[in-house]
Amino acid sequence: MRIPILMMLLATPLFAATARQDTSPTEAPEPRIVSTLAMDPESPREIVGWWSDGRSLIEVARDGRYRRWNDLDRFDRPSDVGRWHRENHAVFWLNSYLLPAPPPRRVALWLRDDFLMADVARLKTPFTHSTTPPRVPADDLIGRWRGKGGELRLDPDLTYVWTRGEAVDAPIAITSQRGRWRLLADGRLLIEPFAVNQRPMIRVAILDESNRIVELASDSGGLRLQPPRPRPVTTPGANPEAPTRENVDDSVDRRPKDP
Question: Which of 14, 181, 204, 236 is in Cβ range 3.0-4.6 Å of 217 for a Cys bridge?
């Protein structure tokens, strides 16, 4: 006799729960807190810039293109390129140019202590937004190198321009050279002239105790990286184009006037 009673006790709550569910089919589900609600839809956060998870890198350019690297070296060839478009204040998409075309990657934005973060589809680690890319060893070489070996300008687009500093007494001498440069993974500097019949004028890199390149050498001598030129200091509100007293005096017509 106890078994039927037990079954009745178990069936009654089940029936009651089913009856409540059927009588209120339009009951709203419990609200779920989403981190993107912290962002203001009327003031979308800027997504143009650099995104990194500490191991890989994505550049979202203002012209609608993007590039992605499997490491942090933006001077290396990107593993993926394509275009991006923004869906709303909390989502944008990456559409690859690779063939065959992979599915678009959905990028969901959220905030961590007011820092803009992103979850990229098929990538496990969240990305952090920054206006500047992470610094890599090649950044230390960009700039103007000067010395007895002439002048060498290493540009961020991985091109270089070298000009000879002194005249040489030779019937045929290269006075300038253009080409590509690249800092290899093992720390070696690669110099490649655009002209296939020329040899690189910069052939030796001198390292310090920490294996950093501190001097470059050519047939004419060495070159060292020059410090960047200081920016002119201007007073807020001052007009740099305002004429000086000397300029005003010089502009006055000093010819004698007719009596």
Answer: 204
